[in-house]
Write a structure and sequence with these properties.
It is extended and about 50 Å long. By secondary structure, the chain is largely without helices or strands. 0% of the residues lie in helices and 0% in strands. The N and C termini lie far apart (43 Å). It contains no helices and no strands. The relative contact order is 0.14. This is Spore gernimation protein GerPD.
Amino acid sequence: MNLQVINRELSVGKIDVGGVASASLMLVGDADIIQLTSAFDTPPESLIIGPFVPLTPKG
């Protein structure tokens, strides 16, 4: 994937972070290189795929 970014002027007044996930990136400012990697350390036999259960809002 090739991504071209043209930086313009940026002014950040306030950042309010409500939560951070285990796989997240928050960047404000400049970066020459961003390299993201991931690892899946759970054995394949413990992975449960389907059936999917629909989530319904409590009412």
